[in-house]
Amino acid sequence: MLKSIKVRDYMTKRLVTFRPETDLFEAIEALKTNGISGAPVIDGNEQLVGLLSEGDCLDAIIKDIYYTEAGGKVSDYMTTDVATVSPEDDIVDVAVEFKKRGLKRFPVIDDGELVGQISQRDILRAVLDITQHPEHG
User: Fold this and answer.
1) What is the pLDDT of residues 95-121, one digit of tens each?
2) How many CB atoms lie within 10 A of CB 118?
3) What is the pTM assigned to this prediction?
4) In which domain, by residue range, is 114 found?
């Protein structure tokens, strides 16, 4: 039953995104304000170039403490080797990937374009929807 649910059915489509040149502290404020733990980084052509997570921000803060280099740009701290998923992937397969890779979110790419993001929380929401409302599954 869960195997038939696709990423597209539960991914977030309205994303907070950053540009590589965004000030790091602006990005941290946006993460806090939006209650999210990370966001995709896109270039001027709307192409995915990285991901900025709370962990990346913590790395930046720790570096600042030791080297007194406060701030910087998102591009200085973002992860550039980003694992992605397709909107057609099954959420069970994505759940397995979350556990294997120790990640909290995957950008969703369709034909090279960023179309959304799916998080562990989205997977849990799908499971609850199906178990609490089996007529929708």
Assistant:
1) 999 999 999 999 999 998 999 999 999
2) 26
3) 0.85
4) 2-136
Greatest alpha-carbon pair distance for the chain in Å reads 57
Distance, CA of 14 to chain centre = 12
Phi/psi region, residue 55 (left: phi>0; alpha: psi -120 to 50; beta: rest), is alpha
Q: At what angle do helices 24-34 and 54-67 cross, to 10 degrees?
A: 140
The CATH number for 15's domain is: 3.10.580.10
DSSP state, 52?
E
Count of domains in the chain?
Answer: 1
Please determine, for residue 88, whether its predicted confidence score (pLDDT) is greater than 70.
Answer: yes
Rg of the chain over CA atoms, in angstroms? 16
